[in-house]
Amino acid sequence: MTDLRLASDGLPPLGSVIDAHGLRPKKSLGQNFLLDLNITGKIARMAGDLRNCDVVEIGPGPGGLTRALLASGARRVVAIERDARCLPALEQISAHWPGRLTVIEADALTIDLSQHVDRGAKVVANLPYNVGTELLIRWLSGEIWPPHWASLTLMFQREVADRIAARYGDKAYGRLSVLAGWRCNSRILFDLPPQAFTPPPKVTSSVISIEPKLTVEPAPLDALQNITAAAFGQRRKMLRKSLAALGGEALLDQAGIDPTLRGEALDVSQFCALARELVKRGSA
């Protein structure tokens, strides 16, 4: 039976939308639909004032968060969705808010945001689990900094969110922490239990806020990525061993770093120093 009730935004409940369009989440696409409009509204509010900027959403699915962003006053939402099954549901939302929703059928990994939104856009998304980390690394690794985007309000598995927000000395501190901490300020906003999603994932999820630093310590990006990959790829080894292929003790001595330390013992500034020395040696 069709549910004739309307949600507070004047559109059908998300459960009815999913049934009407046969939108069963696909594991192959990393889909876990968030159906509680109270939660999607909270995520939209956490992204701040949306009235004067473009908002990018990755993987909108049936459009729960999309609706919350528009209801919160987003000037324009650009939703990138690769699952063609979701397009009719998104078209219904677009008709409800004329001129404010642009839907792009594409894989987000192939999209250059600067070609679709104005500078200062905010990215707000319940990222598909299977591409979330790769997308984040791309956004953090742009050659131009500050980036095209003004902030990221993203949902990840709690384990990934912990790694992003970890500071030097934290248990979760690692390669992703260094890359994020070098260029951004990150903080976990709140957690969501598995039961908030359809289907429920096996892990807790977290919404995290990431804002770019206007100025960052100089560090060659490729060298920094090589250094952190080596240091945390063998994180239980001393740096003189884990960085042996990049210069080992000689490199560490030049950067003024104790070669008996492990990667987890270095702060972001020390990793930047190592990256600069690696380029000087011509080993990057």
What is this structure's SSE topology?
Elements: H1 14-21, E1 33-34, H2 37-46, E2 54-58, H3 64-71, E3 76-81, H4 87-96, E4 101-105, E5 121-126, H5 132-140, E6 149-157, H6 158-165, H7 175-183, E7 184-192, E8 197-198, E9 205-212, H8 221-233, H9 239-242, H10 248-255, H11 268-280
Parallel strand pairs: 2-3, 2-5, 3-4, 5-6
Antiparallel strand pairs: 1-8, 6-9, 7-9
Question: Outline of this structure?
Answer:
The chain is an alpha/beta fold.
- Identify the CATH class of the largest domain: Alpha Beta
Which fold does the CATH topology of the largest domain refer to?
Rossmann fold
Order of adjacent strands in the largest pleated sheet = 4-3-2-5-6-9-7
Give helix % range.
25-40%
**CATH homologous superfamily heading of the largest domain:** Vaccinia Virus protein VP39
Rg estimate, integer Å = 21 Å
- In what range is the share of β-strand residues? 15-25%
Low-pLDDT residue spans: none
Structural class label: alpha/beta
From the spread of the alpha carbons, the general shape counts as elongated
Distance between the termini: 63 Å
The beta-strand count equals: 9
Q: Please give the domain count.
A: 2
Protein described:
The chain folds into 2 domains: 14-212, Vaccinia Virus protein VP39 (Rossmann fold), CATH 3.40.50.150; 221-280, Helicase, Ruva Protein, domain 3 (Orthogonal Bundle), CATH 1.10.8.100. It is built from 11 helices and 9 strands. It has helices at residues 14-21, 37-46, 64-71, 87-96, 132-140, 158-165, 175-183, 221-233, 239-242, 248-255, 268-280, and strands at 33-34, 54-58, 76-81, 101-105, 121-126, 149-157, 184-192, 197-198, 205-212. The longest helix is centred in the last third of the chain and has 13 residues, at 221-233. 43% of the residues are buried.
